[in-house]
Amino acid sequence: MNLTLLMYLIPSLIMFGCGVYGFLTRKNMIAIMISLELMLNSIDINFVVFNRYLFHGQMEGMFFTLFAIAIAAAETALALAIIINVFRIAKDVDINKINKLKF
Amino acid sequence: MPLSYTIAVIAIPLLMFLFLGLVGVKMNKKVTGVLGVCGMLITTILAYGVALTYFFGTGEGQMVDGVRKAVTVFNPDWLSFSDQLVVRMGIMLDPIAAMMLVVICTVSLMVHLYSLGYMCDHHGNAEKGFQRYYAFLALFTFSMLGLVVATNLFQIFIFFEMVGVSSYLLIGFYYTSPAAIHASKKAFIVTRLADLFFLVGILILSFYTQTFDFFGNDVNGIMGMLDDPQASLAQAGTTTFMGCSAMAWALTFIFIGGAGKSAMYPLHIWLPDAMEGPTPVSALIHAATMVVAGVYLVARLFPLYVLVQGAMDIICVVGAFTAFYAAAIACVQSDIKRALAFSTISQIAFMMTSLAVSSANGQLIEIHGGYGLGYMASMFHLFTHAMFKALLFLCAGAIIHAVHSNENDKMHGLHKYMPITSIAFLIGCLAIAGIPPFAGFWSKDEILVAAYEKGLGWGLWMSMVAGMTAFYMFRIYFLIFHWKKHEIHTEHAPADQPWTMTLPLIILATISIVAGFVPAANLVTWDGAPLHTQLNWTVACSSVLIACVGIGLAFKMYYKENALPERMANSCRGLWTAAYKRFYMDELYQFITHKVIFQGICKPIAKFDRAIIDGFFNMLAQVTNQTSFGIRKLQSGSIQSYVYFYLIGALLLAGITMACVLL
Amino acid sequence: MESLGNIIMYFVIALAIIVFSVLTVTSRKILRSATYLLFVLFATAALYFQLDYAFLGAVQIAVYAGGIVVLFVFSILLTQKPGEDAKPLDSHHRWLGLLAAVAGIAVCAVALFSYTQFCGQQLPDMADPDIAQIGHFLLSTDKFGYLLPFEAVSVLLLACIIGGVVIARRR
Amino acid sequence: MEIFNNILIYFVIVPLLTLLGLALCSNKGIGAIRAVAVAGATVLVALAGYLVYLFLQARGAGDTSEMILRSEVMWYAPLNVKLALGVDGVSVVMILLSAFIVFAGVFASWKMNPLPKQFFLWFYLLSTGVFGFFISIDLFTMFMFYEVALIPMYLLIGVWGSGNKNYSAMKLTLMLMGGSAFLMLGIIGIYFHSSADGNWTMNILEIAQNDAIPHQWQMWLFPLTFIGFGVLGAMFPFHTWSPDGHASAPTAVSMLHAGVLMKLGGYGCFRIAIYLMPFAAQQLGWIFLTLTGISIVYGAFSACVQTDLKYINAYSSVSHCGMVLFAILMFNTTAMTGAVLQMLSHGLMTALFFALIGMIYGRTHTRDIRDMGGMMQIMPYLGVGYVIAGLASLGLPGLSGFVAEMTIFVGSYMHSDVFHRVLTIAATCSIVITAVYILRVVGKLLFGEVQNEHHRELTDASWEERLSTATLILAVAIIGCFPNFFVNIISDSFLPIVGALENAARAAGMM
Description:
Distance between the termini of chain A: 59 Å
Strand content of chain A: under 5%
CATH topology of the largest domain in chain C: Four Helix Bundle (Hemerythrin (Met), subunit A)
Number of domains of chain C: 3
Distance between the termini of chain C: 62 Å
Strand content of chain C: under 5%
Oligomer: heterotetramer
Helix content of chain C: over 70%
CATH topology of chain A: Helix Hairpins
Helix content of chain A: over 70%
CATH architecture of the largest domain in chain C: Up-down Bundle
């Protein structure tokens, strides 16, 4: 039995699907962020896997993942800062109840 | 005196109006009044001079071969509609214009003078708005003078409007009283409605004649076209619309215009209400001058009316009916001014009828070898009536001023207290009743002669109305001055008024006595040529007899307090009430204007505008708005729903791509 | 032919990823979600190690598992009262989400399975890229140099730090 | 530049300079703001007077060209868009009218509050548009100035208005913008058919000269342009912006809007719609004639039952402006001259009305005639002014309304067919209805007993209010007393238009 490209893509795909499901159904903004991380992570895996299998002499995929991790970290930090700030004002992190800025 | 002085006759009242209106309000009241009287005095002297020059002078082309011609003193363009159709503002003198100058100025002067006393309270203090009152009087005098000297039909229309407005302003002089406001509004709107017809008539007529002028100076006037069969007027006579010639329509419409001003049935309803104005105003405008403007208008176009017998017949019937109708109402009125107002309507109708009975079958009726006796009689009656009716109104004013009421039952037995007024009123009554040698006899007699000449029926009808006239006038006289002893309601006993008020009475009474001897037949005739008349003894005797019967009846019923009038009223209560309520014409108008026009037309239109027209545009906006709100739901701000949309789109795209690739 | 250890390792990792991913999004206790996420991230790191990207795996553990998850845990603790669970989902929401996720997976799966020419690719041999090489690439401006993105990310991180401070600062 | 030798350009430059001057004033310095505004208005009146003098001189010297004081500057060569200036008699009197209204408007908004500076800024921007429209003979420039005149209206009503001002401002702007959308389509259409040989032009005179718009296109473009301007001229059924807009607008804006802006509609109708597309005008005129005939009577009837002073006047404006379009569609010199007289008359008279209503409203804080009464005793000056305005409106000889209406009626009656005559007679009926609603409001508002005892303490007009109204009353009286002066200026201007119409009729075999 060989570990083919497909075999690595399937967990990644399921992880992405879970991310989508979570993003769509969760109400808690932090939970949504967590789902987002799942999706990001699955994409990272894809990059790495494709790099490893198809372009093993090069390192673009790896670097892309590297940067993606960095940016994800930044993004999460910022998003969580905002969420906490919103929580301070609205006393809630339910995405449907944060609508004071809406027209 | 040169005829061009007429310009001054017109201009002085105008200047007085502007001066009193703009500057006068800041001045002392008495001073403005005296100024007004002085201005009017000068105007009157000039007007007399001009009229005498016109009638008896020969210098300025007014007499050609023994026929009086119209003299156009001056006629500048005022408003050019097109190259031919030009409205001019000019001055034209002909017999009736000259006569009207005299009438208007005389009565106006008397009223100016009289008002000095009338418009003050018992302590001699002038009323509020005294200056305004004199300004309006001057405006009215100007408008009326402008009307009578008009050189063209449009100028008459213009001054018709002007006198209408002056009348509106003067009726509404006491502008805090709801009745006065209502009356002034009614007067204006009714006459405006009539003027609408007048305007349409002018439009029709001028379309064919291509001129408004009566006697053109450079182009041929309307009158100049009469003899020329090729002229466009003849075309107007042949062009037909709904079975009548354009000419007949035009003239009928113009008559309706005149009927509005002259209070012919059914447009008479404004005149009795107009008595809400100050009494001198009623004397000037609503008895002597403005209300005869309609008669004057028909007389002015008399040669045209003669051509169209249909229009003449309408005038004749309307006039004769109105004369009777108004006389019948006058017999039962209890308000002295209203009774006099109906008397005025009746007398004006006399004049109208008189004009109309001059012709039959499109030809003037020949009487004693002369033509147009009715025309002459009408103008003569206009003259005498102005004098004695002004006298009666001024007397009424004096009485009202003394007892502070318009109602008969507040008066009674005043002869003892106000002898001068009583005698003046008696003279007026005798004049209007047609007792020789007072003025009314001579003019009314000519009218009756003309009516009998037209047909026995017309003559009898008019004689009957003349009898009724004598009755109701003496009814008023006896009720006011005799009937029973006066009950003093105020602390002052009623008395003759100050000289400013009695002097006009005396002057007018004198005129009423002697005016009948004015040789009107030589002076005011339709073609300017002197008319030979002689007293028709049959008609004269019978009319005096009828008048005496009327007076006798009135004496029997009203000289001493008795139950006879009450019994008679009770014997035909329905008729009496109907007459007292003026045969419910006001209620009919009220119904038409309020229920039909206001509630039935205006309100639905306004609702339609708001609901349907505006609603439609609002609906457009609403639909746009609703659509926007509908679309806005898509832009909810909820990330999760965006993701759904995104996913749907992405999956669709992917599905389509795959379908394309795989299949 | 892979070594059996590798294959077993793969299945363990794949199972962990799948199970913990599902648990992450279905758990009603948010703190547990974060923990499951941590496991997923560890599994991912393991995957990287298996694929010979040791540095990447290290970064994954250090930044993701070590940094981000801790951030999550802190913010959860700051915003959540103890014992407060997420409300159970109403069924149409769940089914809608499930449908969307499954549809997405299905489309991708169809795509994957229809491109068999590379999906069946064997794992080629590759030397683990050494750190020096990575460092060299990161800071070079050659064809495969990543200096510009590197600097961009550093600026981004700076902006992010400032932003985080500004936003979270108590006023 | 050569164009600065033309006096006409200064009708745009002066308001713009005034704008600049106002912009330099400080917000607090009300005295300086007033001074600048008055100075601008005075210069405009003087310029307008001088323009009339120039015009009379040119005509007196035998200059019979259609437009005088022509000059052109190329703006955008690829589309042949020019700043083309020129005036004929109609433009001259319209400019005079606008100058008068601006002058009176400045005094009527003397105590404007809040933000007087900004108010006058927008006010003068509006004036710029109005004057620019009347002096230009290039379609593009006209349209541009037209829009410049419309937009400030939104802010002027929305910010300084009263009552339901947001709704009104929005409605007015949207409906007028809808009209200009039609208009722009029409103008583009005209442009692309302006010449047979492809040398397209925006210049009205050249387009009329070329007479190249195909008949089937005219049938589309005429309604577009006519409705486009007709909306502004309050033609039934596009008039509904007028009552709401006027009711909410501040005094000076109502004055300028009813007094001048609505005239842009009538002016555009004959200058663009009829002049450039005479064939379609002849063919389709009857439709619009019926609509305007309805406007006249409908507006008058609607005015009879209103209780808000401004609504009464707005509906009266619908009636009177209907008269303008009605007369224009009669296609003869007399009626069209009457239309311009009516524009003048209605402009001055309605401005007077709105000025007086604004002054009364400013004192009583109500415009409902049921709540007022006996104003004549309290404020005789304003009362007399109102009566004069009313009399002008119902057509008293000696005031402007009469000459205008009579010229229109006589001109309209010159048509010998039944359709035109019936409409004419229907239109004449409005003089009675006008009398009814004017006298109704005069009776209720001015006469009678004082309804509200608080009103007894109100004061009569102040000096600037007296000046504002006296200017307008004087102008109304001058037109009414010496109409021939204006008729002589105006009537020749219609010869080319009537000529074009007759040619079109002859070409279509209608004559």
